Each structure stands twice: as C-alpha cells, then as structure tokens.
Amino acid sequence: MAYQKVNADQRAPGHSQYLDNDDLQATALDLEWDMEKELEEPGFDQFQLDSAENQDLGHSETTDLNLDSIQPATSPKGRFQRLQEESDYISHYTRSAPKSNRCNFCHLLKILCTATILFIFGILIGYYVHTNCPSDALSSGTVDHQLYQEILKTIQAEDIKKSFRNLVQLYKSEDDMEVSKKIKTQWASLGLEDVQFVNYSVLLNLPGLSPSTVTLSSSGECFHPDGRPCGEEARKDSSQDLLYSYAAYSAKGTLKAEVIDVSYGMADDLKRIRKMKNVTNRIALLKLGKLPLLYKLSLLEKAGFGGVLLYIDPCDLPKTVNPSHDTFMVSLNPGGDPSTPGYPSVDGSFRQSRSNLTSLLVQPISASLVAKLISSPKARAKNDVCSPLELPNNEIKVISMQVQTVTKLKTVTNVVGYVMGLTSPDRYIIVGSHHHTAHSYNGQEWASSTAIITAFIRALMPKVKTGWRPDRTIVFCSWGGTAFGNIGSYEWGEDFKTVLQKNVVAYVNLHSPIRGNSTLRPVASPSLQQLVVEKNNFNCTRRTQCPETNISSIQIQGDADYFINHLGVPSVQFAYEDIKTLEGPSFLSEAFFSTQSTTVEEMDPFFNLHETITKLSGEVILQIANEPVLPFNALDIALEVQNNLKGDQPNTHQLLAMASRLRESAELFQSDEMRPANDPKERAPIRIRMLNDILQDMEKSFLVQQVPPGFYRNILYHLDEQTSQFSILMEALECCKPLAPDETLQEARSEVLNSINSAQVYFKAGRDVFKSILDGKN
C-alpha cells in the first residue's frame, strides 16, 4: 500500500519555539530520530490506505478495516543549523589610528575590490555545482522512471508478433532441442550474458504405442478417449491426439468395474456416495475443477476407488467453447523428476523406481464420450440453459478401461542467461517463461511466453550496452518439461537451492500470458500487490478504459511453483483472461488441450495485449532490480493474514491474537525502517543492505511442511478468488465438518499459528538489530 509523505518543514505547533531556544539548540541537533516518541502522537496507532491507491485488491474483507494513514515522521537529519550572530559583536583586535584619510580610502577600496572578486567567484562556483551535481530536489525516483520509460518504449507489438510466429513454426519436431537452440541463439545475439543450456536427465511418463480405450460391457462398444469408436480409420485420423490424451504418471493396466458419478470429487460428494454404495475398486466419473486434481485423486484413492475417468463439463466453459470432442492431457506429478524427489537429477544421483505416482488408473476423456456413457447426447437444453452431465443414481454402468503408458529417461533442457547487477550482483530477480516440451500438448501459450520474455531482453540490452546496469542481477530462464510437472524449473531449483535460498529476491512469472482478451488479471504475493497496483494504474492512464484493479494471491499454474513453495520468494504474474472463464470453476487450467478452441492470434490479432504484458512485467522487473530499497510491503502481509482469519471460523481467538501482534510488529517495522530508508538523506549502505535482506525473506515464515496434495506450501496463497481463508484451514474444516474438531484440524491451526508467530518474531528481530546498530553509532 502507498503511504502519504510529510514534508520536512511541517512541524507541530510549538516546535519552532523549541528550536529557537538557545539553551536547547545544540542538544536538539545531536538527537537521532526518536520514533518511539512519534509513535505516541495521537492518531499514529491507526493506519489508512492512501486515497489514490484505495483499490479493491480482490478481498472483500479489506473494506471492513478502518485504517488511518501512516504518517512518516520528519527526520532531523535534513535540517540545517542556523548561524546566529551576536548583535553586540565587536572585534577586540586593536590597532593604531590611520595616518591619513587617503590611506584609509585606499584600504577601503582594496577591501571592496576583494569582496567583489570573491562574490563573482562564488557565483561561478555555485553555478558549476548546480549544473554538474544532482540536486536534492530531483528525486532518484524521477530519474529511474525516465530510464524505465526509455527502455520500455522500444517494445513494439509487431516485433512480438514476428517472434511468436517464428517460434510456432519450430515446435513441429518431436525433439524440443530445436526450440531450445533457437532461444539460446537469439538471446545471445541480443547481448545477454553467459547464455547456456542446463540439461537434466529425468523420468518422463509417455503415451503407449496405441491409444487407451473405454469399452461398454453391456453392448461391447469400444471408444477412444475422444468418443469416437475404436477402429483403424479413427486411429489414423488423429493418432497423435489420441495417444496424448492421457494422465502422465498414472497407473497402467486394465480395470473392469461399475462407474460411479462423483461429480467434482469434493469431500461432501464422497461422503454422500459412500453412504449409498460400495466404492471399492470402482471407477469414478470425475469432473475437473474447483479443487486441485491431485487433492481430489488422493481422496478417491483413500476411499478405495480403482480407476478414474476425468472430464470437463461443457457447462463449466463459456458458451463459445465447444470441447465435446477435445482430448486433453494432465500430469499427476507434483513437481520435478519423480525418480529423484527433493534432490536434483545430476549424474550419480540415486533414482527411485516410481513409474506411477498413484495406484489409480486415470484416463482423461471428452465430454462426448461421457454423454454416451450416461445416454445423454446433448449437454445444453434447447432454451440454451446448460444441463450438467450426470449419471443417474439408479443406473448401473459397467465398463472396461485400459490405460497404456511407458516410462523413459529423457533430457529436459533449460535455457538460462543473465544481466549482471552493478551494486548487488549477488541478488537475483528471476524472470521465467517456458518453451515447447516434446511428447506433450503445449498449444501456443509457450510461444507467447517466450516471445514476451525475448521482447523485454531486446528492449533492455541496448541500454546495458551503453554502460548502464541494474543494481541487482536479472536472470532470464526458459524452462523445459513444464507440462510434465514443472520438471525443468524444479530440477534447476534443487540443483542451486543453497544459492537461491539466500540470493533470490523475486520471481516474475510469464507462464501463460494470453488466456483471453477481456480482462487483465494480475496475481502477486501480498508484499508485492501494492507495486502491481501502482504499475497497473499508471498503465491504465495511457489507455481509454481504466477498469478497477483486481489483484489477488491465488494458486497459479506454471514454473513459479518451486520458487513460491520451496524458497518462499515473492512472485508476480500478469495475464489476460476471459471474464466468462473466470466465472467458472477454478483449476480447469490443469488440462492441456491438443488444440485450443481460440488461437492466440484470434484473441490478440494485433499483439497489443502481448505488448501490454511485456511493459507491465518489464517495469516491475526494472523497479525490483534497481530500487535501492526493495519495493516490498511488510504491512500488507500482516493485513492479508488478518483478512484470512475473518468470517465464521470456530476457535480462532488465538490465531486472531497472534495476527494482531504480527500487525503491530509490521507497523513498527514499516515506520521505523521503511520510511527512513526511502529518504536518500537517511540511507546508509549497511542499513539498506540489512533492510533488503529482511524484506526479501518475509514470506519464508509462511512455508509449512505438510499440506494436502496440490495445495501450496506457502499459505499466503488462496485456492481461488472465491475463498479468502487459509487453504489448509479450509480443507481441515471441510473434512471434519460433521464431527467435532479433531487432530487434523488442530494440526492445521497449529501450522498457521506457528507461521504467524514466526513472522512476528522475524519483524521484531529485524527492528532490534537496527536499534542495536544505531545505539552503537551513538
């Protein structure tokens, strides 16, 4: 959030009289900034968002807070001592009287000439200093902003369009090395430093030699995943699409059993079904969406199901989308190489035998096949009201499903380059996109991602070649193996974990920037939300339409996963979405379709949206990389925690009390350290360095060890925009809803409580360190 600044010459009534007191003048000038006294001033204990930045950040609860503005106190270090002369000052140097009036006249003339020369000389020196030295009136922020605009104005939609089309033509090959080589060559030609491949040999779960099948026992009809009958003709028409309609890392084999409709597979759905039927070794008919797929599969596996037919209900998609015959792929891999969980796949690493990550046979199928299974040929009624696909409870369907996959060791390639920082080269801002992965569906989103990151590099490097450099190092990464569970980013992160834990400042995600064309949807860590709002509002002033900024901290797809959940790094992502898609269930993006119903060029024919994403992301990158003090907000984290505990949640009094203490510590930290550090007159290099170290590690306190499958370990992130509770608390409440609070709920509360307490102690320790440094100086 933004804070109102108070000029150094604004003083409380009576303050000037205090400074004019001769007895206290010298003492007052020696005092350090006493924030403890200023905190006692009326009105300081409450805070309020600046009216210019009072935006709806996607949390309706925020409006309930009555927060007064944080008023920066005035530092005495910016004041100048007044030179006072005694009115009765008389020189006590005595000499003899002048011998004549002429001699006295000559002496006075010499003094007048000397004074005139000195006066002219002083004017010349002052003019030289004024024109050659930076003035205090010209803030560094203004200079930086002008620099950023010089870089960003060279980003053009037409250049992004050309890059996008060149990339799309490359991915026809089954080997992604061709795309990787193209990216490496282009980045190096633009001047990026030390561009190199980082390869890992990883375990990939690939389709079998023939497509999976679903057979109705009653009629003997056999179908492929897209709903077409089994046969040579159908297999020849779209053999690749049929092969790649599978769930990577599923169990393989054949299962014949009754199909049970579990809807979205929520905890309530399963409790209701288990009361009516025996679900052991049955096949679940499961809709994608509303909760992470890995979590829902864990519930089905725990309940005793043997197989899963996974589909997307057409009613969950916009009316313009018709995925009835579309096949799709999903990955059941939570992240990284399954054969080396938690450690990198480097030469000599021990490999575990993990060809499948679940005991369930999982097969994605099209909505048209579901309609045939339940004897309902049409999903939408004549009056255009969508009727969800459902299998009647009194109808028994027995099918035989066959899942065929093969596991192989393959090479996954990352492309990495950087621009070395000038003053803090050991602090990294990581900018991540992803490129085409062989043996999987990718659509065209990877080409948008790569074209955008390349466009920013193209705009940045001419300024670097003139001698300018950012304060911190910017690392550019194009990840491989994303569709199989963010394998490239996970392996790189595990490989360099020791360095990254200490040095990474932020992660800027460019995973899938164009998913629609109707609304801009930023996602950011709580500490970065205010920066994103400011950048979006500035960009909005240059457009005809200025919609209200809707920013949130929700789980997102892509390679930011490792940096958010294992390193606790603040992250940010800008993406365009379809409003109608946002109105549907969350987590539908877990599916990878062979062909998109709307191509990227149809959504953004002139690539203006690509240009906007590039400029917004670029300005955030530049500001994080170049600001003396990291533009992170400690108080916003505390407010987010309090918002997450609002509502009708039982037994949260201890959590609320701890959250209140966290807010108090964050307020003191923000007022004691953030505001002086942003005043150039108050900056000491060691103090700025220590402050930035604290700011970049703020979110690490909110990493919990154990979470349900598919949930973020960083509990500052929600499941979706419809929920504002801590996700692990919400899941524990759902599981224990009909019962009294049990051990699971208590464990979840304990995890949240410990995280809040850790953050509170962290802020307090930071203030104590700074206080000891100031005391040592005195």
Automatic annotation (TrEMBL):
Start and end residues of each Peptidase M28 domain: 414-578
Record membrane topology: Single-pass type II membrane protein
Region (Disordered): 58-78
Membrane-spanning intervals of the chain: 108-129
CC terms in the record's Gene Ontology section: membrane
Family affiliation: Belongs to the peptidase M28 family. M28B subfamily.
Cited PANTHER family: INACTIVE N-ACETYLATED-ALPHA-LINKED ACIDIC DIPEPTIDASE-LIKE PROTEIN 2, N-ACETYLATED-ALPHA-LINKED ACIDIC DIPEPTIDASE
UniProt name for this protein: Inactive N-acetylated-alpha-linked acidic dipeptidase-like protein 2 isoform X2
